Records
---
Amino acid sequence: NAGVTQTPKFQVLKTGQSMTLQCAQDMNHEYMSWYRQDPGMGLRLIHYSVGAGITDQGEVPNGYNVSRSTTEDFPLRLLSAAPSQTSVYFCATRRLDVYEQYFGPGTRLTVT
Amino acid sequence: AQSVTQPDIHITVSEGASLELRCNYSYGATPYLFWYVQSPGQGLQLLLKYFSGDTLVQGIKGFEAEFKRSQSSFNLRKPSVHWSDAAEYFCAVGSTFGNEKLTFGTGTRLTIIP
């Protein structure tokens, strides 16, 4: 039981490049979400999903896309990276009926 | 809108001393409240949570927190800290009305001195 996994652990992009951050879970959790963590700002919700085929925006969705085709996976796409997207990204999951989130180890992204 | 304030950015305590980390929340009804801990380079781990009932909740690693509705607070305490408690601590509030969003405070970094 791996829990919540994220790949890659580290990534450096140039401005304008695109990439996908992967998040996978093996706990059969309906709810999955993406947060970004920046110094002095805590964690801010980017996008979330309450099940396959259902996604919604969080607090800071601009510049990011998501989709949820399976229960297990919830990828986060940056279509045209900007330096303002330099951050640490966390995926979190939980059951819909239990309000307790499990976090992945994070992806540290640098955009130059 | 819900919000969380952690007024202390950085706290330093001596090993063996007691600890209290402050958390104030803003929410229109009884919220769900959480404390998470993040060790350097790691993800977040849930320490404890409050949903309802007894206002003093016990968590892992010897931590406890008390929900005080009159003060809109959910402070985290530990009677005697260990060097391994050095980390960043986040308070979070969640809605009780089906809104799926969890709002985090900006965190308190805890340093332990020998």
---
Amino acid sequence: SQQGEEDPQALSIQEGENATMNCSYKTSINNLQWYRQNSGRGLVHLILIRSNEREKHSGRLRVTLDTSKKSSSLLITASRAADTASYFCATDEGGYNKLIFGAGTRLAVHP
Amino acid sequence: DGGITQSPKYLFRKEGQNVTLSCEQNLNHDAMYWYRQDPGQGLRLIYYSQIVNDFQKGDIAEGYSVSREKKESFPLTVTSAQKNPTAFYLCASKNRNTIYFGEGSWLTVV
């Protein structure tokens, strides 16, 4: 099945540091989204970036999209212990009503 | 409060049994989804429904069945044909481009 891929698979940083995670996908998209999942919980939507946008900000989150490389990155600035979670990218490359999720990046932020 | 409610949170299934996971939403969304998540893995699409009385297979539909008789309800049945059903199951609904998730149901085969 078509599925995006995130890297790194796991990331461990100290509070206050920035965290960057990347996502690649395979075919053309209309938009790409990032979601967060705390352990054993549902996913929560963070941010959506459209294919005609290159960068988007939301609070401490910065998302970039490079459609020529079929890749996106999520930057969390000044990380906090509460940011510890798994982060997933999702694209609509499966069609308007069929979001395809990547395998996720597990972020651990240490106090 | 508006949202998606999944039940039960934890479910144990004996070999050869069918079990049904409930998903209810009061967000008035047309599209609903079921995803499966294995430990440390991403989400895989089982089934989705764009409108009442209509649903499509996702990438791993074998051994699962769904119904969509009401807009707010999209139950998932894990049948005995699903040989490895132990996983975390997530129900979701969609408004425009954003998907909203329930809190998930853990299914374990005993």
